[in-house]
Design brief:
Calcium-transporting ATPase, cytoplasmic domain N; single chain; 16% strand; 7-stranded antiparallel beta sheet; 8-stranded mixed beta sheet; 52% helix; elongated; Rossmann fold; alpha/beta; 21 strands
Length: 820
């Protein structure tokens, strides 16, 4: 930023606001200060993670057990703290990272007040201020140009159009745009939250929770369980009171406590609490792994959404291109001029005191070819008004600028040159023309520049937006994965289409491009049009949002990338918003994923991580749901037959950890590249039903038949404890079989994992502390024989149920194939 003293400012007539005027405007809120939040507040994050349906159910069950005084049976409640803590810590970490990204460099701006130019901070600007906008500065507030000295603005952050716009007196300028060249005096017309950029992002500031198919499925299970749990809990307590001699007897003897604990054992078993915990943990681990690759995940669920994406809308500038300009070629027109002289002239024409973006690209490109500055006798700098620049050298007068302007000054006979210019422009190039006059330049050439009509076209200078080196390979990866990519830009559709062709957006097929001004407004009609379009140009912010809505009409899962304020509405509307690290703060605030170093090539890693989470969580969800099924069926059997509950909550804690919880964590983090397949909940339920039915049937048969065979009196605490410990063994063995089924194929580390947990469960039963804490026993004598017989019967029941389910599944698929 240049200081006021380093630049000679033009003389102007206006005096600007007085100190009193400024004070009045600051006092009544007409200043440029704006309260902005880059992301959700800490309270919002805590509230979203604490007040969940799952936490409510588990907390209620834990309180009931604690009332009885049996804290050992309430250890399952700690999952609330762990699950909630993981969600809060991970989202707070993302918030801190995002807040750092969103801090803008504090700049001083030059305003004209009381007839003098003074520097004020961004928030010090007020309504009606006379504000200087100089080259390199970002426009801090909306305004109308009073006087201009060749001001050109880059408005791509607002409009998506990457070409600079020349402004005239009376033109509007908007906050968020950047001055590329020249300067202007602007009267401020809107400040703070009333500015254009603030208005366009007002809708986007509303937080939208990411839709997670995985969490939706889990929440569906929880909702169903809620309707089942509440009445079943009441019935379980009633049946357990009856089992201990009735309500009066229960309260008189204190056995009501055992009745409540037994009822909670059924309730807790029905809730897949470990699945909720593991889902949060798996999302968090994925987010941390992505963070190492400079990819910030703001919402944990968005990791899973990546696995389901089948449409990816890409913003051209900042995603496919890096916003810079690249010098591609100096194409001679065959007039006999020496190419080396022309290359030298091009370098010297570009080598101005403050070259624009095109000039910098030419200097960089020719510099790599070994060209250095030559002898320049006179220079006419580039002017937006003239549209050309010129130098005088030993080899003549050289001109460079807009082809149509130079050719019109040369007279007729150059139609073939214009045709070449148009052909190259249609291929996405920015085309400049070099012309040469072999004679002498006028003595007043610098003071009174003019283009000599006797000059002749020499060469075309071809430049283009600089394409990211990783764009083509990244797009190829998405094509292979079945993800349809579209480029949506505010630029000319022909230019964008040419860039799409260069990066092989559609592979070997020619990309179809279209001007967004021709798009239908009706969403249904738009959805039909989009099926056949790969590139959209001249797209307005609201149209980007409409494009996402139209794709949703056809049930697509849409991801959207962007970096400008103009992308904010579309990012919010998409299933997954992906912002670049150099994006506008408002854009990063509403995106679920931020590519911190703005590298498009990180997206395949992000999608692969999402697929790993989704595929693995489907596997482990099946494991957890088996427990839900058998707990519900056992509870129903207990209510109907009014028997004591066949195991304790602490049994479920121990067995669940060894056969479900810890193995599930290992399986969830295993490599898995399977593509997302719709129907997560249906597949999980169909997998869990046969195993759950087998376990429930085995435990209930054991509880109904063993007391008679072994002459156990279930009213006797010792006999009941023995029966419950035996049922815990049945649960453990069948749990290992379920784990083996889920972990298939049992080759390599998977087989060793199942064996290790089987051994760990058996060893734990002989360790006194573990055995006493979890109320386990080691069977001996006749109890050992009974246990072996019951286990054999249970294993047969398990394989019969699973085998039957497999036969039914094959028949169902055969019928479906026959209908197809």
């Amino acid at each position: 930023m240049e200081s006021a003293t380093s630049v000679t400012m033009p003389d102007i007539d206006e005096r600007g606001l007085s100190e009193r005027d400024v004070a009045e405007r600051q006092a009544d809120g007409r200043g440029n200060a704006m309260k902005t939040s880059s992301s959700r507040s800490i309270m919002d994050i805590i509230r979203a993670n604490v007040f969940t349906l799952f936490n409510g159910i588990i907390l209620g069950a834990m309180v009931l057990v604690l009332i009885t005084g049996s804290w050992k049976d309430a250890v399952f409640g700690f999952v609330i703290i762990v699950n909630t803590g993981i969600g809060i810590v991970t989202e707070l970490k993302s918030k801190r990272t995002l807040d750092k990204l969103s801090i803008l460099v504090e700049s001083e701006y030059l305003v004209h007040r009381d007839g003098a130019d003074i520097q004020v901070p961004h928030d010090g600007i007020v309504l009606d201020d006379l504000l200087w906008i100089r080259s390199g500065e970002q426009v801090p507030a909306d305004g109308t140009i009073v006087q201009t000295w060749g001001l050109e603005l880059d408005e791509s952050m607002l409009t998506g159009e990457s070409r600079t716009v020349r402004k005239k007196a009376g033109s509007e300028v908007y906050s968020g745009s950047t001055a590329v060249s020249g300067m202007a005096l602007v009267k401020v017309t809107a400040v703070g939250e009333h500015s254009y950029a603030a208005k366009i992002t007002a809708e986007a500031k509303v937080f939208k929770k990411t839709t997670s198919d995985l969490n939706k499925g889990i929440n569906t299970i929880l909702k169903v369980m809620t309707f089942v749990v509440v009445p079943l809990c009441v019935l379980l307590i009633w049946s357990q009171m009856k089992a201990v001699g009735g309500w009066s007897q229960a309260f008189a003897t204190g056995q009501w406590r055992q009745a409540v604990i037994s009822a909670v054992a059924g309730v807790v078993g029905m809730i897949p609490e470990g699945l909720v915990l593991l889902t949060s943990l798996n999302f968090a681990v994925a987010a941390m792994r992505l963070a190492r690759k400079n990819t910030l995940v703001q919402e944990l669920e968005s990791v899973e959404t990546l696995a389901r994406v089948d449409c990816l809308n890409l913003d051209k500038t900042g995603t496919i291109t890096d916003g810079g300009i690249a010098f591609n070629e100096l194409r001679m027109l065959g007039g006999g001029e020496n190419k080396q002289d022309t290359r030298q002239a091009l370098f010297d024409l570009s080598n101005e005191e403050q070259p624009n973006g095109t000039g910098q690209a030419v200097l960089e490109g020719l510099g790599r070819q070994g060209v250095t500055a030559g002898r320049v006798l006179a220079r006419v700098p580039f002017s937006s008004a003239r549209k050309w620049s010129a130098i005088v050298s030993d080899s003549g007068v050289w001109y460079m600028g807009a082809p149509e302007v130079i050719i019109s000054a040369l007279g007729g006979g150059h139609e073939d040159v214009l045709r070449m210019v148009n052909e190259n422009a249609n291929e996405g190039n920015r085309v400049l023309l070099i012309a040469r006059h072999a004679g002498q330049a006028p003595e007043d050439f610098e003071e009174n520049p003019r283009l000599d009509s006797s000059a002749r076209p020499v060469a075309l200078v071809l430049c283009s937006e600089r394409i990211r080196s990783d764009a083509e390979s990244t797009l190829a990866w998405f094509r292979e994965q079945g993800v349809r990519c579209r480029i949506i830009s505010g630029d000319n559709p022909v230019t964008v289409g040419a860039i799409a062709r260069k990066v092989k957006l559609t592979g070997d097929r020619e990309p179809v491009y279209m001007d967004a001004r021709e798009l239908p407004e009706d969403i249904d009609e738009l959805a039909e049009v989009l099926d056949n379009v790969d590139v959209l140009g001249r797209v307005l912010p609201n149209q980007k949002k409409a494009v996402v809505q139209a794709l949703h009409k056809n049930d697509h899962v849409v991801a959207m990338t962007g970096d400008g304020v103009n992308d904010a509405l579309a990012l919010k509307e998409a299933d997954l918003g992906i912002a670049m690290g150099n994006a506008a703060p408002a854009t990063k605030a509403i995106a679920q994923v931020v590519l911190v170093d703005s590298k498009f090539s990180h997206l395949p890693d992000v999608v692969a991580r999402g697929r790993q989470v989704m595929a693995n969580m489907e596997r482990v969800a099946s494991l957890f749901l088996v427990k839900t099924v058998y707990s519900a069926l056992i509870s129903l059997g207990v209510v109907l037959t009014q028997i004591p509950f066949p195991y304790l909550p602490r049994h479920i804690t121990y067995l669940g950890a060894l056969t479900i919880g810890i193995p599930a964590f290992i399986l969830a983090l295993a490599p898995n590249t399977r593509r997302y397949i719709p129907g997560f909940l249906k597949r999980v339920v169909l997998f869990a039903l046969p195993g759950g039915i087998a376990v429930a049937l085995s435990v209930l048969l054991s509880t109904w038949l063993l007391p008679g065979v072994m002459h156990w009196d279930l009213a006797n605490a010792a006999d009941l404890t023995q029966l419950r410990a035996l049922n815990a063994i049945i649960l453990f063995v069948l749990g290992i079989l379920v784990l083996a089924r889920v972990a298939q194929p049992l080759t390599g580390w998977r087989g060793l994992m199942v064996l290790a947990f089987a051994v760990a469960g058996a060893v734990g039963m002989v360790i006194p502390f573990v055995r006493n804490f979890f109320a386990l026993i080691v069977p001996r004598g006749t109890t050992m024989v009974a246990t072996l017989i019951v286990l054999a019967v249970s294993i047969v029941i398990f394989f019969v149920c699973v085998g039957t389910a497999r036969v039914l599944s094959v028949r169902r698929q055969a019928r479906k194939a026959a209908k197809g």
